[in-house]
Amino acid sequence: MPFDAITPADLDPADPVGAIAAAAKRCSNWGRWGVDDVLGTLNFLDEAKRREGAACVRRGASFSLAQRFDMDGPQKGWRRRTNPVHTMLDTGTDAERGTQGFPHGLGGADDVVFMPLQASTQWDGLGHIFDHGVAWNGRRAGEVVTSDGDLVTGIETTAALFAGRGVLLDVGRAIGTDGELPDGFAITTDHLIATIEAQGETSRVGRGDLVVVRTGRLSRARRDLAEGRGWGDYAGGASPGLSFTTADWLHGTEIAGIATDTWGFEVRPNEFDVAFQPLHQVAIPNIGLFIGEMWDLEALAVDCAADGVYEFFLTAAPIPVTGAVGAPVNPIAVK
């Protein structure tokens, strides 16, 4: 199937159900790796691909692609998502007072954090989104995720696998204005291909790659913060993002995962009159694709623009919370 099987002009804004069903049929990976598969597109990231990723390290420069995890984050309570709450259990004050009960003058500090697992930089797991009550690989959603968590495709199944060749597609710089795309800008397959062509050979995308797409939305949010306007609707409002029509590109390139610097990955508002995250509905339960959101790509993008090299070794293991449908991550890009 060609990457441009459909274009934005082909979409009927009044028919998200038909568009989702057609894309799901075209792009389905169900059964590709057997009926018991729990890894989806991570099957593309094999040992050879990890060696290719390791060979991208030339200078040893490293970049954290994580935003902060603290109470000053962007969450505003949507779906009961809050910012992380960090509390100390033992402190230096306790140690000075000798109230901790340790012998021979030993003291220490300890702490705890409470947070939704998708409050900041994170991966969506394969149990995060369903299509008409069906989860990845054609399983019934209710048999996969229960009150005990994701019993089949929990994020812990991926703990050792997110390490390989990373590629930055800085769409904000390639086709945006002043390095940013406006809210509501739908990134099409043509935009992705144009960005690859503008950046050169090191940004080619193929099987097993971990792709990160910079829109510039986080840069704009931080400018608003610095100027006293707060986070605004960064976590849930209008935003640039991938067009629904990129589903065929996401499927056809055989990438292992993709992440953006936005809250929702896909363009918001979505491209249909009444819809909520329709690209998620195709990508996760049907393609089996792992999606990352709220990644901080700013420092990496500056470095890539400076040296013209857009590939790197990327390790991005989620915290392996048993049964979780998504998890925090501190991705590290090494060039």
TrEMBL record:
InterPro entries: KFase/CYL (IPR007325), KFase_sf (IPR037175). One of its GO terms (molecular function) is arylformamidase activity. SUPFAM superfamilies: Putative cyclase. Gene3D superfamilies: Putative cyclase. It comes from the Bacteria. It holds the Pfam family Cyclase. One of its GO terms (biological process) is L-tryptophan catabolic process to kynurenine. This is Kynurenine formamidase.
